[in-house]
Amino acid sequence: MSRVSFEELLDAGVHFGHLKRKWNPNMAPYIFMERNGIHIIDLYKTQAKLEEAANAARQLARSGKKILFVATKKQAKDIVADEVSKINMPYVTERWPGGMLTNFATIRKAVRKMASIDKLTVSDSYQNLSKRERLQIQREREKLEKNLGSIADLNRLPSAVFVVDVIKENIAIAEARKLNIPTFAIVDTNSNPNLIDFPIPGNDDASKSISLIIRTIAQAMEEGLNERKMAKDKSHDEHEEEEENIENQNKFAYDDEEQDSKAKTGKKTTDGGRAKRPRKAVAKK
After folding, report:
1. What is the pLDDT of residues 117-126, one digit of tens each?
2. CATH number of 102-154
3. Could you state, in order of their start, the residue ranges of all structural domains in the chain?
4. Domains 6-100+157-228 and 102-154 share a fold
């Protein structure tokens, strides 16, 4: 059964594309028809592609990998921040910092700078600074938090990138392709789906459409995270059970050795611990 029904996609307006004159010919397989100069997206294909992308995202989450969500357009910012923060995945909703993937080491330096400023603010030397210097440090910290705060826990390159608008986030797509990082994206009729590994044909401008698709992917990833947690708990329980069985086996082996050693040394008696000698038969006269 599909995660999202045809009716839900229809109600969210996922089928509305761009004007016919703005279309990308590569989107022809996903276009159902044209009405009043606007292309209509085939929702059955959207449903199938969304299911495929959700399954891939679930597998990545189950493997403990990270997906970086990118949505800097106004109508997608809050939606991505709310949904993605629930599953503790990194996201970018402000300006895409150029070289974020291809020059990841420099980005990590900026994130570490945030941590060093936090340490400075709780130290005694911070109180000795002038008011102007403290204000400059606070402003720098706020700027770093705004641009990089959501990726502070991203210690290595993400395993995949999810983009809401392919055209607006073309730099992010280019960097991901250069590093062979798999890409997911909502692809409208004016975009090129061939640039994306897991394209989801749909309306990338309407808030309802973006919300439905992002929520579906986030729920799939949450399932993967729960499966990973259950697998860890199961392996932990099996490990404890195995250790308990080994301990019991060792205990039984020790008891058997102790009984064998007692059998070899002979039976203990009450008269000084010496074994009783059998009496010789005396012939009666």
Report:
1. 888 888 888 8
2. 1.10.287
3. 6-100+157-228, 102-154
4. no
pLDDT for the residue 285: 40
CA 7, distance to chain mean position in Å, is 29
Would you state the structure tokens that stand for residue 130, as one six-digit string? 């002038």
**74-85 and 207-265 are packed helices; what angle lies between their axes, rounded to 10 degrees?**
20
How far is residue 117's CA from residue 31's CA, in Å, rounded to a whole number? 51
Q: State the Cα–Cα distance between residues 58 and 217, nearest whole angstrom.
A: 8
CATH 3.40.50.10490 fits 6-100+157-228, yes or no: yes
Model confidence band, residue 9 (pLDDT cutoffs 50, 70, 90): very high
In terms of pTM, does the model score above 0.85? no
Q: In what order do the strands lie in the sheet containing 67-70?
A: 91-92, 67-70, 160-163, 183-187, 198-201
What value does the mean pLDDT take over residues 224-240? 80
Q: What is the DSSP letter of 22?
A: G
DSSP state of 209: H
User: What span, in angstroms and rounded, lies between the C-alpha atoms of 184 and 195?
Assistant: 10
